[in-house]
Amino acid sequence: MPEKRRAQPLITIAIPTFNRATQLQELLEVLLPQIAAYPEIDLYISDNASSDQTEPVVRSFLEGGASIRYERQPVNVGPDCNFVKCFRQAKGKYFWMCGDDDIICPGTIDKVLRQIGGGQEVDLLYLTSYAFREDWAAERSEDTLGRQFHVFTSALEFAKVTNIMFTFISGMIVNRERLLLVPHEDPSAFLNTNLIQLSWSLPLLLHHRRSVVIWDRCLAAQTGNAGGYSLGKVFGEQLKCCVGRLLPERSDLQDAILNFTLRRWLPSVIYALRRSKNERIGIATVNEDVGRVYGDNPRYWLFTYPVMQLPLPLARVWLKAGTLVSALIYVLTIPRFWRKEG
Predict the structure, then answer these.
(1) Three-class SS of residue 33?
(2) Strands 69-72 and 41-47: what pairing?
(3) For residue 158, what are the contacts with CB-CB under 8 A and spacing of at least 6?
(4) FRET label pair with 48: which of 22, 86, 109, 332, CA 20 to 30 Å apart?
(5) Which residues contact 306 (CB under 8 A, 6 or more apart)?
(6) Which three-class secondary structure string do you get for 201-269?
(7) Largest Cα–Cα distance in the chain?
(8) Distance separating alpha carbons of residues 126 and 252, to the nearest angstrom
(9) Tens digit of each residue's pLDDT (9 = 90 or more) over 231-244
């Protein structure tokens, strides 16, 4: 008799990894107990030819009975190509790529499955996060407003809430099955942008039906691990180009992402880098790169430029003022953003 065909997994959780054996082990120690009871979850790890203990770490989990699809690249193909491989190897209806240095906190899988496993389709599911330095459990923070989740049928409202976090790979779960049915470019078309992840999220925003935000900060993102790219180039030229290309004729959606980047996100990142004297992400060229791309946007001059140029004490005051302005914009444009809904 022919072998019975297995049902399609509900979701693929894909972890691209390179030389972060310690962080990957911690992630798997927290994640695997959460998915053990769910055969509908497909866990895939793409090892980008790590030279540390990554392979032995994964093998130890496999020998312990964990259900993991593990592939090791023969050579390091770079992060973007590894991301594309994760997308292409996904088997699930939904696709969730998680950074190897992030933690999917206990209870998160149950919350995710409650949103995507019911009768209603979800195009995008955004999980809010918090930053930690050493101990993700001890440093965990809750949503200050006590919100659980919000459902969005408006693409613009969802974009205003999610904004620059479309670029956070661990925070966005996409309906891969739906993506393959709508017009979209192959992710490989965005190689060398450092923003491959936008190729599978923004087309769903463009053809949006229904999406969900989970508020209670169920992802822990370790700080200090970013690097190897120019902050100004990626979140200046590359971001603006990718957003315009993937959201054609939707200047409102483009503005929701780019204006928040200039008003709130870039100033906070720049201030933190200036304060720490961290030069790994190319802070020295940020002013030139960002100013060249956004010089015609008044938000660059009002929010980003002063934080780059003012002495640190004044930059801190300016940053706080920008934070208050962002909060006011949310109050005026998305009143229910502040309410408990789910």
Answers:
(1) helix
(2) parallel
(3) 124, 126, 152, 205, 208, 211, 213
(4) 109
(5) 314, 315, 318
(6) HHHHHHCCCCEEEEEEEEEEEECCCCCCCCHHHHHHHHHHHHHHHHCCCCHHHHHHHHHHHHHHHHHHH
(7) 75
(8) 20
(9) 899 999 999 999 99
* Residue type, position 138, single letter: A
Does the reported pTM lie above 0.85?
yes
CA angle 130, 86, 28 (to 5 degrees): 50
248-287 in b/e form (b: 16+ CB < 10 A) is eebeebbbbbbbbbbbbbbbebbbebbeeeeeebbbeebe
**pLDDT one-digit tens code per residue, 249-306:** 999 999 999 999 999 999 999 998 888 876 555 566 788 899 999 999 999 999 999 9
Asked if 265 contacts 257 with a C-beta cutoff of 8 angstroms, the reply is no
Strand 11-17, strand 41-47: pairing: parallel
Among 298, 268, 142, residue whose Cα is nearest residue 217:
142
Question: Radius of gyration over alpha carbons of the chain, in Å?
Answer: 20
CA atoms within 13 A on the CB side of 26: 16
Pick the CATH number of 8-225 from 3.30.420.10, 3.90.550.10, 3.40.109.10, 3.30.565.10: 3.90.550.10
- 254, 243 contact by CB (below 8 A): yes
Residues of the chain with CATH 3.90.550.10: 8-225
Q: Tokens 């979850």 sit at which residue?
A: 41
- H or E element, residue 175: strand 172-175
Two tokens at 120?
A: 């209603």
Q: How far apart are CA 286 and CA 225, in angstroms?
A: 19
* Residue 3: C-alpha distances to residues 58, 70, 197 (Å): 29, 23, 36
Collapsed DSSP state (helix, strand, coil) of residue 262? helix
* Least confidently predicted of 192-196, 237-241, 332-336, 338-342: 338-342
